[in-house]
Amino acid sequence: xxxxxxxxxxxxxxxxxxxxxxxxxxxxxxxxxxxxxxxxxxxxxxxxxxxxxxxxxxxxxxxxxxxxxxxxxxxxxxxxxxxxxxxxxxxxxxxxxxxxxxxxxxxxx
Length: 109
Hints:
It contains two helices and three strands, in the order ααβββ. With 109 residues, it is an alpha+beta fold.
């Protein structure tokens, strides 16, 4: 008898916990359709537009300028002798620099 009451109580608690997950589906009483904004246009890197930064110092400000000029969504720094993953992302600009902190290469991916 005690086990049955415990099970019933646990089932009730579980049902109460899940009741917050219920989503009402159906007509909200409105005849107009809600406007859904279009998804954002993904950024596409254009390394050619940022080639003028080669030879400059690798600084945070320079990184921001390269990111803007390349139209990329993200920036990846490549330190001297550093390895990169080979995953390709069309929204990423890659910036390699040397031991003197001078930018040596700007590519996309």
